Amino acid sequence: MPMLDQEKIETITQRLRKANSVTVLTGAGISAESGVPTFRASDGLWEGHPIQEVATPRGWYRNPENVWRFYHARRANVATVKPNPGHVALKQLEDRFGDGFTLITQNVDGLHQQAGCRNVLELHGALREVRCTKCQRVEDRGLEPLDLMPICTTCRANVRPNIVWFEEALPELIWSKSVDATVASDVFFVIGTSAVVYPAAGLIPMAKRYNPETLTVEINLTRTDASEMVDLGIYGKAGEILPIILRGI
Ligand code: APR
């Protein structure tokens, strides 16, 4: 018989009270309650914008203006939104565990940092950053509107969004820090991700494989590809469930 949510929350809070190391992997669902669209919902970003056209190197070479239009719109959306109670609860978790807390995110919206989180590993890049196609310099341009085809302030070549597209490698140092934090965790949360995109989703089974004692927890609106891999799942809005967990520790 499935554990009741109340019992699950009790299990999680008990483990958190004893834990030294807590690692969280987030996806688009954590920002949904802030008004940032997810990708794979029926009205999600990949419905209106085919991945091949706006999120692959080939799409960029074919039509960089089209790619930039997509990212200009995403930047404009994120410029208007605020962190929600889910982001705030994760910042409180960081305050509680200090250096023992790591937040790994697939999101590029910067909302965890806006909520005050300091130890954030951005696996898929950041909307606020651009990267030069020639000198590779990464610049933080904030979320102010940019020219349709912005250029590098150093070498004047075109810049691209500093986003990890499909078929591209993850930033090496960020990935290795993510693996380290995952295998070291006493409690590992996977929140608001469909868990279909690798290597990010590969962190989920990794937590348990390297430390069978780790408690792995999914928080999502629905069951996902992660559900069979975790010890327990709580299904509902992250912005409602996370504050309840925080109040219990
Ligand atoms: N609370 C919790 N979960 C939610 C909420 C919510 N309020 N709203 C939506 N979700 C869940 C959905 O049920 C879904 O499982 O968030 C998940 C969002 O899944 P995706 O749209 O697939 O986004 P994500 O998993 O972050 O995508 C991974 O794929 O598109 C690429 O690079 C992009 O980083 C992205 C990666």
Number of strands: 9
The unreliable regions are none
Q: Mean of residue pLDDT?
A: 96
Helix content: 25-40%
Q: Please, what is the oligomeric state?
A: single chain
Order of helices and strands: HEHHHHHHEHEEEEHEHEEH
Task: Give the helix/strand class.
Answer: alpha/beta
Radius of gyration: 18 Å
**Largest sheet, if any?**
6 strands, parallel
- From the N-terminal CA to the C-terminal CA, the straight-line distance is 26 Å
What ligand molecules are bound, each kind once?
Answer: adenosine-5-diphosphoribose
- What global shape is seen? elongated
Q: Tally the helices.
A: 11
Question: Beta-strand percentage?
Answer: 15-25%
The largest sheet has its strands arranged as 3-2-1-7-8-9
Characterize the structure shown.
- This protein has 249 residues and is an alpha/beta fold.
- Helices cover 38% and strands 18% of the residues.
- The protein has eleven helices and nine strands.
- The strands form two sheets. Strands 3-2-1-7-8-9 form a six-stranded parallel beta sheet, sandwiched between helices.
- Strand 2, helix 8 and strand 3 form a beta-alpha-beta unit.
- Helix 7 runs parallel beside helix 11 and helix 9 crosses helix 10.
- The longest helix is centred in the first third of the chain and has 16 residues.
- The protein starts with a helix and ends with a helix.
- The mean pLDDT is 96.
- The protein binds adenosine-5-diphosphoribose (APR).
- The site of adenosine-5-diphosphoribose has 22 residues, from helix 2 and helix 11.
